[in-house]
Design a protein that fits this description.
Rossmann fold; binds adenosine monophosphate; single chain; about 220 residues
Length: about 220
């Protein structure tokens, strides 16, 4: 299964992505996570990416596409993959098409999740993360057992710079201008599945599974 999951930041893509990769046993490729890893490892690319990420801007296409090209050469993507947060503009969508064509493969599904802006802002600005294990919590919707502390490893939770309200608003603006047109790109190319992201995790997953032709 080769899947892309799209939608504005905070729509719940990451959560649905986790369920899908578990179901299909495919790697979850999140360019945002790759950039954060590269930064944590103090790589040059990671440091450059961090500058853009902190401002809520997109990392330049040449860097992003190169990272994806490299990732697609790994053995584990032979059985499929799920892209989360990529492609983020038309140029990246075209670059991905080329990479897949070279491998003689193509996408099976593009899932587009939607939600109103104000809900997204509430969801993201309440998000807290563990920098040690990557676990994500929410101050109202997914509280850790002990306030401000990761359930898995006891690390103090933090709010990412790019989750601050002003940054979220900028990210949403960039999403509208640059990423939303990608939906039109895939609509023209074939099937795209639209899912209302304001529903519960269970409802979202049930709809996605149904649209992908899974019955159980
Ligand atoms: P995410 O975790 O997907 O929200 O990504 C966090 C940040 O990483 C984004 O706000 C961008 O700055 C950067 N980023 C992630 N994926 C991409 C991409 N495909 N193209 C450009 N920048 C990206």
């Amino acid at each position: 299964m080769r899947i892309i999951i799209m939608g504005p930041p905070g729509v719940g893509k990451g959560t649905e992505a986790e369920l899908l990769v578990k179901h299909y046993q495919i790697p979850h490729i999140s360019t945002g996570n790759i950039f954060r890893e590269l930064y944590k490892d103090r790589t040059t690319v990671g440091k450059i990416a961090k500058e853009y990420i902190s401002r809520g801007e997109l990392v330049p296409d040449d860097i992003t596409n190169e990272i994806v090209r490299h990732r697609l050469n790994h053995q584990d993507v032979k059985k499929g993959f799920l892209f989360d947060g990529y492609p983020r503009n038309i140029e990246q969508a075209k670059a991905l098409d080329e990479m897949l064509a070279k491998q003689g493969t193509k996408l099976d599904a593009v899932i587009n999740m939607t939600a109103p802006e104000e809900l997204i802002i509430e969801r993201i600005s309440g998000r807290r993360v563990c920098e040690t294990c990557g676990a994500v919590y929410h101050i109202h919707n997914k509280k850790p057992k002990q306030e401000g502390i990761c359930d898995h490893d006891g690390t103090q939770l933090i709010q990412r710079n790019d989750d601050l309200e002003a940054t979220v608003r900028r990210r949403l603006r960039i999403y509208k201008n640059q990423t939303a047109p990608v939906i039109g790109y895939y609509e023209k190319a074939g099937a795209i599945i639209h899912i209302n992201g304001t529903q519960s995790i269970k409802e979202v997953d049930a709809q996605v599974m149904k649209a992908l032709g899974e019955t159980n």
